[in-house]
Design a protein that fits this description.
The complex is a heterodimer of chains A (331) and B (382).
Chain A (H helix, E strand, L loop, with lengths): L1 H4 L1 H7 L8 H35 L19 H7 L2 H4 L9 H27 L7 H9 L6 H11 L6 H8 L17 H8 L5 H12 L3 H9 L4 H29 L3 H7 L12 H11 L3 H29 L3 H4 L1
Chain B lengths: L1 H32 L3 H4 L9 E2 L2 E3 L7 E7 L4 E7 L7 E7 L8 E8 L4 E4 L9 E3 L12 E2 L4 H10 L1 H32 L5 H10 L6 H20 L11 H4 L7 H13 L3 H8 L4 H12 L1 H17 L2 H7 L8 H11 L4 H21 L1 H14 L1
Antiparallel strand pairs in B: 1-9, 2-5, 3-4, 5-6, 6-7, 7-8
Classes of the chains: A mainly alpha (331), B alpha+beta (382).
Amino acid sequence: MQELTNLPEVLRSIQKPTKLGPAARREMFVGLAFILPWLFGFLVFTLIPILATFLFSFMNLNLLDPVWPPKFVGFANYITMFGDSAIWNARPNSTPGGMWITLRFGAIALPVGILLPLGIALLMNNKYLKGQNLFRSLFYMPFIIPFVASIYLWAGVLNPQTGWVNQTLLAMGVPNANLPGWANDINWVYPAYVLFGIWGIGNAMLTMLAGLQGVPTELYDAAKVDGAGSWATFMNITFPMVSPIIFFNLILSIVGLFQYFLVPLAFNQGTGFPGGATMFYNLYLYKQFFQFQHMSYGAAMAWLLFVVILIVTALLFWSAKYWVYYASESR
Amino acid sequence: MVKKTVNSILVTGFTTIILAVFLSPFLYMIFTSLKTQAQQSVPSSPIWPAAYPTYVIPSTVKGTFTLKVSKSGPLLDQTVDVSQFAGKTVDVYTVPVGPNGSGKQLALLMGFQKGSIFLDPANPTADPIVWNGGFFKTLPRDWSFSPAWGNYAEMWKDINYPVVLWNTFQYAVWTTIGVLVSCILVAYGFSRFRFPGRDLLFMVLISVLFLPIFVTVIPTFAFWTQLTDFLTKHGMPNFGVGTWWPLIIPSFFGNPYDVFLLRQYFMTLPRELDEAAMIDGAGPLNILWSVIIPQSYPVIVAVTVFHIVYAWNDYFGPLIYLTNNRTAYPVSVALATFNGMFGTRPELIQAGALVTLAFPLLLFFLAQRFFVQGIVITGVEK
């Protein structure tokens, strides 16, 4: 009887046993049964494919012309890959390599992808703003529209001849010859692609706004008493308090950057136009696999990308201790 | 007090301007989708959908007039039987025949190289007006608002929209069912039961979100291709490449993002109710059904709307598995293909984009609260 009245206590005590008792064993089996769909899916759709990709990358497989039994070629695919100028070329005035394109695009896309939503969230958190909820919905709204549709909208607005952006620049007195060619212009194609994706900031903006709203007002009051200016308040209170959310969004952005290829694929059918400037690493991988059917080469490229993303995220997590503030640690 | 009002106006005004710029492509899309091809070929045409004005000559006009017109130089007699034009639609030009050479809107009956004959739409039964000032095509024409709704009908037919809509709808419904059933079970397992390695498994689940897709896509696609070859070779019904099955089946095995969302929410529910039900002898499935789910409608709605929007917008999966089967295309792939074929018809592309984004937009406005809540759960709690 006592066990029943004290059930919560009993439950808690069996939650951390050194050796599993019968109740805990039962709980384990029930829990595992519930997560079974995911466990099975993870094995079949994630873990086995990852290992298969790893294996494929040391073989010589071609999807069009499967040879049986498959032959192991050692590191041949990796050696070819590290010498492939379509991936690594960084010399000026020549077609840039996919990795280099990804980094150059990221140099614009990452700061915009963090600072713009942060700026809008700060504006939205301003105590003088009227109709905050309406603004929040409207700034978030474009996030949910299909990226395929939003590319065509932005491509229209950025059309060098008929688009509103260049028409505005023309009306402001920019000479016709100096107008940017946006997606058709090798010098403007990355800013153009950043604009194609700018409607994706809604998520980051909402999370940052929620973070800003969670900053305790006492902190601001204390800063005011201490006579801190608005910049000092931002750097010493606002930024540290929302830094975990900025960190979270930075990780998402970087992982997204290293997987970037759907926009050029949908917009240019993956031709790399203009002048190979949009042949991003993943687009090149996609073409190797789906167009040229070089399965093993694609697998090697996918594994390299996997490792690069792991290293970059690990570096970011390491850097976090210098700039990300976790309130719970100081408690 | 005054300072506060001024600040409010400044901040709200500034935010409104930024928002207007941010959303301006929507207006571009609406305007462009309603323009005629003719308007787009004229660089000086207005940004809104417009057409040159026309005039339908009333059936009451009659009379034959002989007028002196400069066809290609000297003034010659030209006979006009006005009743011939009755019921016809003619172009309207701004002709400088008013006092002091001011322009007047006149409907063109006959135009020649050096002179033309017009009818005054304000007074169609009066005598025709002759203007011998030059070639009529050099006369200015006013644009008037005129949306070309026909673009939508043309796009609808060219994309074969009813079919792609039905395909997308089926995909969204099946995968939403799969995601809801599997993710609720998995999230319940992760949030309510203790077992060794649970937290590690949950970390693994989250880390899948950061995996580059090609690491898993290559063998998976190869598998479905081989399966399709095998099935067709042995005359069995194909459920591989070219069908929706490779995309629908995985949705029944838990999606990390949705599991995460649901699990975070389940964790916030008090355990007392579970425990009370347990004392009453309810089994785990019973507790999930009658205790957890009734408390979780907000997050379940959020997962549902997120997933419907995701299915609607999904491009890559359908692209790779359905490339060879045009009849199975969803809206996103159909729109991209359409863009490739009709690159010279921006009005049709914009009409297609508008129809494609209308559904998620509508869903967003209906379920706004759930969208915002769902994102805040993922972004802030972790």
